[in-house]
Amino acid sequence: MQTELTQAGPLLDSQGKLAQVGWSRHPLLDCNLENARFYTLRPFQRFRVKRWDYYAVFTPQRFFSATIADLGYAGNIFVYTLDFKTGELHEEGLVIPFGSGIKLERNPEAGEASFANDKVKLNFQVDGDKRRLNVHWAGFNNGRGIQADITLRTLPDHESMNIIIPIGAKRFYDNTKINCMPAQGYIQYGDQREDLQPETCVGSLDWGRGVWEYKSFWNWARASGFYRMDATSV
CA-based angle 46:116:119, to the nearest 5? Predict the structure, then answer.
C-alpha cells in the first residue's frame, strides 16, 4: 500500500537509512544527503550521489527546458527547445568535470541553483511562491543563441507530487514534481522572441536527489494544461 507522509523530519537517519518511505502533497523531509551510508570509504560517496533541478516551460509556440545537474563524478548542463509548428528540435549540453561551479540547494522550497562559465549562464531562484529562471547561452545552435527570463508561480494551496522510495538496502530516490505553474516572461531563440503570458503558458519542475544502482531505467509521465469553460458548458 502507498503511504501518505504528513510529518516533517529528516530524509535519512543517523545510520543512513530512510526515516520515512511514501508520498506527500508537499515537500516535507529535509534532504540530508550528508547522512548517506552506502560506501565504507565515505569520501567516495560524493561520486554516486545524483542531484538535479529540471525546469520545463510549455507555450503556444514551443517547449523549452533547462537543467542544472550534478551527477557526482560530473555535472551536466543542458537546454533544449522544440518548435511545435515546424517540429524543429535542438538540444545542447555541457559536461562539467566533478560538477565544478555547480550550485544546487539542499531542498526544493527556497534558494538558488546556478552555473556560469564563458559559454553559458543558468540561474534558478526560488522566493516564496515565485521561481525565476534565467538562461543565457550565446553559442546555442551554432551561434543562433537562446536566452530566457521566466517567472513561474505556485498558486495558493498548490500541491506537488513528492516520493521517497528505497532502492535496495542502502540506496534511495527523493523526488519532487511541481506541475501547472503559470509562466510569465520571455524566450528569445535567435531572432524569434516569444512573450509568455500566464493565461496560456505553464511551467513545471522535476527536482531529484538520490543514489541508485549502476543500471537504472525511468518509467513516468506527466501533463499540464488548461481547462476552458464557455457559456454553453455551464
Answer: 120
